[in-house]
From TrEMBL:
Transmembrane segments: none annotated. InterPro entries: Fuc/Ara_isomerase_C, Fuc_isomerase_C, Fucose_isomerase_N/cen_sf. It comes from Clostridium omnivorum. Residues 338-435 form the L-fucose isomerase C-terminal domain. One of its GO terms (molecular function) is isomerase activity. This is Fucose isomerase. Keywords: Carbohydrate metabolism, Isomerase. It comes from the Bacteria. SUPFAM superfamilies: FucI/AraA C-terminal domain-like, FucI/AraA N-terminal and middle domains.
Length: 438
C-alpha cells in the first residue's frame, strides 16, 4: 500500500479575470483529486483572491500539518498570495496551471500559465527550490508520489542490528546529516537481541510451513530448515515488537557463527511478506527500499550489480540468496541451498521473474546525499548458479551503467523493484536538491 500523505489545496484568482469559470473548474478538480488513493486533503473551498484570504488560508493549512501544498492558478493573481502561503507552510509546492479557455469577446479569461510563471519566479528568487509546476486538466500524480517518498522517510523508524558488514566502509552514513536531510533517527540494536527474542512453537511452525510450501529443501537437513524457520519467526517478532519500518542487518559473519544459520533464506521469506530488511547493515539501501514501497513498489530488495556481459549488453543483478521469494520466475526450482559458511549459509536460490524493473539508491558521499536511478528489463534465463538473480538489460548500455556507478562512487547495493518508478524519484531529488546519478 502506498504511503499516506496529507495535501493542502488552494486555488488563486483575481476578479479582473473569469474567476467564476475558475471556481467551476476548481470544483471539478476537488472531486477528481478525491479519487487518488491514500491522500487526505485540506481544501480551501473558496477562491483565494486577496492578501487577507491568503493569510487565512495559510494559517488553516499550517494547522493541518500538510506534507505538500497544491497551488492552482485559477486565473492570474496577485504575486503576494503564494509568498503568504509559503511563509507559513514550509513544504513542497505544486504550481498548477490550467489550460486556457476559449476567448470571450477577444479577452483572455484565465491567464493561468502566467500566474504559474509569476509564482515560480517569486519562489525561485526568494530562495525556494522546492516547487514543481505543470499545466493541464489533471494533477501529475508523480508529484504526489514524490511527496509520499518524503513523508515515508520522515516518518520511518529504522533500526540497525549489529553494524555494517566487515570492511563495507562505503555503507556507513553520517547520521545527523541524514536527520537533517530526511528526518532519519536511527536506533542501534545488538544481534543478540534478535537471537534472544522469544517465539512460540506455533510461530516457528507457521514459518516452517511457509518455507516448505515455497521452497524445495531437499539439499539442506532438518536442523538447518528448522533454524531458518526459527530465525524467520524471531526476525518478524523483533521488527513487530520494536515497531520498525525497516531493519538493516549485519548478516555475516556472526549469524552463521553464533546463531547457527545465515539470515538470507529467512529474509527472503519475510520480504515476500512486505518486511523491509536490508543486507549487510546497509542503512541507505534500507531507506531506498522504503522509498520504493512508499510509491507502490511491491517487495523491493537489495541486489548487487554483479556479473557483467559487455558483449551481450546485460548484467546479472545477483545477491547471495535474499530476494523476496514471491519474485520467483515460476519456472526454475525455488530451493534452499547452503554453499558457504561451512554448511550454515542457508540461502534462497531462484531466478527472478521477467518484467520492467527500477533500480534506486539513496547514497551519501563526502557530506552530500545523491540519488542513483536506472531502469531496465529482467529477461528470462536458466537457473545456473546459487543465490537469487535476474538477467537485466538496462535502458542505457551496461558499459555506461558500470562506468556511472564506478566513477561516481555509488555503493555496491541498489534497491530493485518491479515497475517503472523513475519519475517520482526525479521529482523527489529535485525537491531535496540532491544530485541525480543516472
Amino acid at each position: 500500500m502506498k504511503q499516506h500523505v496529507k495535501i493542502g489545496v488552494v486555488c488563486l484568482a483575481r476578479d479582473t479575470y473569469d474567476f467564476a469559470a475558475a471556481a467551476e473548474i476548481y470544483g471539478k478538480i476537488k472531486e477528481d483529486l478525491k479519487n487518488i488513493e491514500q491522500v487526505t486533503y485540506s481544501f480551501i473551498d473558496d477562491l483565494v483572491i486577496s492578501v487577507e484570504d491568503a493569510r487565512k488560508a495559510a494559517d488553516y493549512l499550517a494547522s493541518k500539518n500538510v506534507d505538500g501544498l497544491v497551488v492552482i492558478s485559477g486565473t492570474f493573481h496577485l504575486g503576494h498570495l503564494v509568498l503568504e502561503l509559503n511563509k507559513e507552510i514550509k513544504k513542497p509546492i505544486y504550481l498548477w496551471g490550467l489550460n486556457e479557455l476559449p476567448y470571450n469577446g477577444g479577452k483572455i479569461r484565465l491567464n493561468s500559465v502566467c500566474g504559474v510563471n509569476l509564482n515560480a519566479s517569486n519562489l525561485y528568487k526568494s530562495g525556494n527550490r522546492q516547487y514543481y509546476a505543470s499545466v493541464g486538466d489533471t494533477i501529475d500524480e508523480n508529484w504526489i508520489n514524490a511527496i509520499r517518498i518524503d513523508a515515508a522517510l520522515k516518518n520511518a523508524y529504522i533500526g540497525i542490528a549489529g553494524f555494517r558488514a566487515h570492511g563495507f566502509f562505503n555503507l556507513g552514513i553520517d547520521e545527523l546529516n541524514s536527520f537533517n536531510e530526511m528526518g532519519l533517527i536511527l536506533d542501534h540494536f545488538e544481534l543478540s537481541e534478535i537471537f534472544d527474542t522469544k517465539v512460540s512453537e506455533e510461530e516457528i511452525n507457521d514459518k516452517l510451513t511457509k518455507l516448505k510450501n515455497n521452497f524445495d529443501s531437499s539439499d539442506i537437513n532438518e536442523y538447518q530448515l528448522n533454524k531458518v524457520a526459527e530465525l524467520a519467526a524471531k526476525l518478524k517478532k523483533f521488527v513487530d515488537t520494536k515497531g520498525l519500518t525497516g531493519l538493516a542487518i549485519r548478516c555475516w559473519p556472526e549469524f552463521a557463527a553464533t546463531f547457527g544459520v545465515s539470515p538470507c533464506a529467512a529474509m527472503s521469506l519475510l520480504q515476500s511478506e512486505d518486511y523491509i530488511l536490508g543486507c549487510e547493515g546497509d542503512i541507505e539501501g534500507t531507506l531506498s527500499m522504503i522509498a520504493q514501497r512508499a510509491i507502490g513498489g511491491e517487495t523491493p530488495f537489495l541486489a548487487d550489480l554483479s556479473q557483467v556481459d559487455f558483449a551481450g549488453n546485460f548484467a546479472l543483478m545477483w545477491h547471495c540468496g535474499v530476494a523476496p521469494c514471491n519474485l520467483w520466475d515460476g519456472k526454475c526450482v525455488r530451493s534452499l541451498d547452503t554453499y558457504f559458511a561451512g554448511g550454515r549459509g542457508v540461502t534462497a536460490g531462484f531466478v527472478m521473474k521477467e518484467g520492467e524493473v527500477t533500480f534506486s539508491r539513496i547514497d551519501s558521499a563526502q557530506g552530500k546525499i545523491r540519488l542513483f536511478m536506472q531502469k531496465g528489463k529482467a529477461v528470462p534465463m536458466e537457473k545456473q548458479l546459487a543465490g537469487t538473480y535476474a538477467k537485466v538489460i538496462f535502458e542505457n548500455s551496461v558499459t555506461d551503467v558500470v562506468n556511472k556507478v564506478i566513477y561516481t562512487g555509488v555503493a555496491h547495493h541498489v534497491s530493485m523493484v518491479y515497475g517503472d518508478y523513475i519519475r517520482p524519484f526525479e521529482i523527489f531529488a529535485s525537491i531535496k536538491g540532491w544530485e541525480i546519478i543516472r
